[in-house]
Amino acid sequence: MNQSFLDVLWLARMQILQGLGMTLLISALAIVVGTFVGVFVGLALTYGATPLRWLARIYTDFIRGTPVLVLILASYYILGTVGVHLDAFQAGVLALAVFCSSHIGEIVRGALQTIHRGQTEAAKAIGLTFSQTFLYVLMPQAARQAMPSWVNTAAEIVKASTLLSVIGVAELLLTNQQIIARTFMSLPFYFSCGFLYFLINFGIERFGKYVERRLAISTN
Amino acid sequence: MGYTLNFAVVWRNFDLLLGGLGLSLGLAFVSIVIGIAIGLFTAFLLNAKRSIAHGAAVVYVAAIRNTPILILILFTYFALPQMGVRLDKLQSFIFTMAIYAGAYLAEVFRGALLGVPKGLREAGLAIGLTELQIKKSITIPIMVRNALPALSSTFISLFKDTSLAATIAVPELTFYARKINNESFRVIETWSVTCLIYVATCVVLAALLRLLERRMAIPR
Amino acid sequence: MTQLLSIKGLHKSYGKTEVLKGVDCDMQQGDVVCIIGSSGSGKTTMLRCINMLEDFDAGTIELDGQTIGYETRGGQRHRRNEREIAQQRALTGMVFQQFNLFPHMTALDNVTLGLVKVKKMERAAAVELAEHWLDRVGLLARKGHYPGQLSGGQQQRVAIARAIAMTPKLMLFDEVTSALDPELVNEVLQVIKDLAREGMTMLLVTHEMRFAYEVATRVIFMNGGRIGEEGDPKKMFHSPTTERLGEFLKSSGFS
After folding, report:
1. Which residues are within 8 A (CB) of A21 and not within 5 positions of it... i.e. 6 or more apart?
2. A186 Cβ under 8 Å from any chain B Cβ
3. Is pTM beyond 0.80 here?
4. Would you call B171 exposed, middle or buried from its count of C-beta atoms within 10 A (0-12, 13-18, 19+)?
5. Is residue B181 less than 8 Å (CB to CB) from chain A?
6. What is the CATH number of domain B8-216?
7. Which CATH number do you get for residue A20?
8. Residue A159 in domain
9. Which of helix, strand or coil describes residue B184?
């Protein structure tokens, strides 16, 4: 059958859209959970008592020293067979969320440490408690500081979601590979698949810059 | 379901894992050397006047940075043959990683270039040096020292990314980990040891690179 | 005249270095006390102990009838918990050398934050009070500006408003003009002079000798972690009884 690329693309459009949806779902879940956990890791790294800080440090360094693919494979094999029996999707999202949390932890730590000590002192001087100081003075400033890095990490997660194809999760890349396996049209499909990811990440980058600009206006 | 730890299989195959580690390090090293050359050249183009070459550099960097590496690897190995470029596994992986490294290093070097004080070029001109001499003797040496920390972290990143070579059956560390895992099903042992090898290597690399940075630093 | 502040035997060390070697100080309501001395003499440390930005190792600080920072329970000296210390900090207001305004909030919000969160005032009442003080420091027109849009002198005046809007019993000023360009120093000193004239009890660490001479009811000269000399500025500056004070005054250019 000598169909053209566009014919095949059109016929497979639902499949591809489903793959895209899966990619976005995986990424969103991993980013949300990872950010939530990461904030606590960052807090532990900055303000934690020594044993807690060490724990957070070991966690962060261990995760960051391991390739994402290895994290995914380890999660898939270990958590898929021993104890919890997660399926590929769950194991994959968990691995990505853990990966995300270690990066966010470092980002939050970095952002909190750049805030001038004088801010905490001024807050103390007017009688704010620690949680009040954190909520109203430190966190708003840290969040602005961390925004570009956070957007970067989000883009990294979207790119890393492609690795879930290795454990059989039907996200965008695997979907394209299945089409290629049927039609042997490697060149157009790998290209268009890559281009789609490029568009998504480019969009994330643009969105990040937009948010940065809006936040900057309100502080200056 | 009880799981008793038994590291014997892993120790028996430890030489395979170490061999894989060696290949990973080798791949990372070759990729970064080529990547540095590409990155330097691209960085100068990025900082130059608007022209076709400048535009091409911008597109190159944006495209590679926003595309998942896995897609780049698969594209080079599976899709390029359809354009007539046939590379074996090793060649295609190194090619991909060098292009990938080049795009990231271009940004690193561009930033480092901007960090070289403009006055130095004028001082060079004042003593009669040509632009090329200034680039060679003044700009590039300073720029390289500025870029060393980012270069180090890019190299460590690249080392972790070599794990993706496993997806096209290049016999590096992750490939062998998977092999041992599939043959023995000692999931916890295999993956914990593999993770430890990666983390330990990253720690050692980071320490060595910090030493190098200190050796090359300008005394102050 | 009510006794407001009573410091007895204040000691503090950073590691092996003893910075405060037994300092006593009493202040009545309405006093304006300036602490002068060279760097490292312990003057800023003493100030920061009063609102527990620094812990201290021995001695007592009594402010408005409360024992600051520590209490004796069963013969043992215990540091109070964070909530009690936060409440005690409401007795003082502090203005810093580096202003330390919250950069992500407008001038108005900088002042209302403490009123709403610590004094638990209603937003409308807080805004009214904040605007009153911003007006007093001459910056009502800038209430919607962010710190980044204000000059150093303006920022410091907002900082003063922020501290004083909390109606503290004692105002602490830590070298508040040292980080300002010379032409901006006066606007800040003028605000402080006005507050002094209206009876605000103040303790200032300062290098501004002329200001101390003109405004202070008492000057303390700190030297090597101890009080070197203390008294009426007019008498002290013209006839210092200790040699160190004489040298210090000369090197500060005060004749």
Report:
1. none
2. yes
3. no
4. middle
5. yes
6. 1.10.3720.10
7. 1.10.3720.10
8. yes
9. helix
